[in-house]
Design goal:
274 residues; alpha/beta; Rossmann fold; 2 domains; six-stranded mixed sheet; six-stranded parallel sheet; 10 helices; 12 strands; globular; binds NADP nicotinamide-adenine-dinucleotide phosphate
Length: 274
């Protein structure tokens, strides 16, 4: 019988997850389909209980449901500490929640820079994605600084990590970047339709900085263009993180090795069509 997977969120119509997972199912010859379901925050509990009753095999959870969904699943320890889930597996009968966003970003960074331990990492943002990323980097032994527009949120997030500092944006950012090995944009700044926006310009960067923008629409954000202009050698867009978090969900649900290249190709093709 065909297995059903999907993503719940609002808005969800433009999610790239259906394209990515359906390409993977096709590549592996699996009898499965992945759909997008628009669900409001008020209905998230009903949606999860309903999905279980209907025999849905697995769900991704996206904005604005990641935190609230945690209350309706049996969440793994890491997801509980992050305070949000993006994946639900129904295979054991009970909905089990995971957070694969952090796993995706860590895999990207390890591929780009190798060892993360003792690296100075500056994360712009203190929202859901910044939380998941910083948690995994902290566990790896990186020295993390959280820089956020709302400084109190940066302070709160840093206080939950072992080896972290915090700052606001603006002037103090320049000194922080100078002392950093890796810069990650985990804010929505630069995302379509505000494609000309960036929190960091070329004159603030040095060539040995690794610049990673988790925003994937557009694939080459203004921040990444500025990094190129500054002669930065290692530049990473947000597509790989999207693919790796999706691949981690895929493996949790199906226990199969995800066809990463097929998934990435499908996402990049969809973004190029936009
Ligand atoms: P979120 O929880 O809403 O957090 C948004 C963050 O952006 C906050 O830190 C917010 O600062 C900051 N921000 C928003 N507008 C700003 C502005 N004009 N100037 C300065 N800071 C601003 O969102 P999220 O879930 O963390 O997602 C953030 C971005 O990451 C989104 O673009 C999302 O698409 C992307 N993302 C990508 C992946 C991937 O796999 N590549 C995964 C997850 C998310 P305040 O605290 O001051 O409001």
């Amino acid at each position: 019988m065909e297995k059903i997977y999907g993503i719940i969120g609002d808005p969800v119509a433009h999610s790239l997850s259906p394209v990515m997972h359906n390409a993977a199912f096709e590549k592996l010859g699996m009898d499965a389909i992945y759909l997008a379901f628009r669900v409001s925050p008020e209905e998230v509990g009903d949606a999860i209980r309903g999905a279980k009753s209907l025999g849905i095999s697995g769900l991704n959870v996206t904005i604005p449901l990641k935190e609230k969904a945690l209350f309706f699943v049996d969440a793994e320890e890491v997801a509980k500490r992050i305070g949000a889930i993006n994946t639900i597996d129904f295979s054991s009968g009970t909905p089990v929640g995971y957070n694969t966003d952090g796993i995706g970003s860590l895999r990207v960074l390890k591929e780009t820079t190798g060892e993360i331990k003792d690296k100075n990492v500056l994360i712009l943002g203190a929202g859901g994605a910044a939380k998941a990323i910083s948690f995994y980097l902290d566990v790896e032994g990186a020295r993390v600084t959280i820089a956020n527009r709302t400084k109190e949120r940066a302070a709160r997030l840093a206080s939950n990590l072992h080896n972290a500092d915090f700052s606001g944006l603006g002037l103090e950012l320049e000194k922080r970047i100078e002392a950093s090995d890796i810069l990650i944009n985990a804010t929505s700044v630069g995302m379509h339709p505000n494609e000309d926006a960036t929190l960091v310009s070329a004159d603030m960067m040095h060539p040995d900085l690794v610049v990673f923008d988790i925003v994937y629409n557009p694939m080459e954000t203004k921040l990444l263009k500025e990094a190129k202009r500054a002669g930065v050698k290692k530049i990473v867009d947000g597509v790989k993180m999207l693919v790796y978090q999706g691949a981690a969900s895929f493996k949790i649900w199906t226990k199969k090795e995800p066809p990463i290249e097929t998934m990435e190709k499908a996402v990049r093709a969809a973004l190029n069509r936009d």
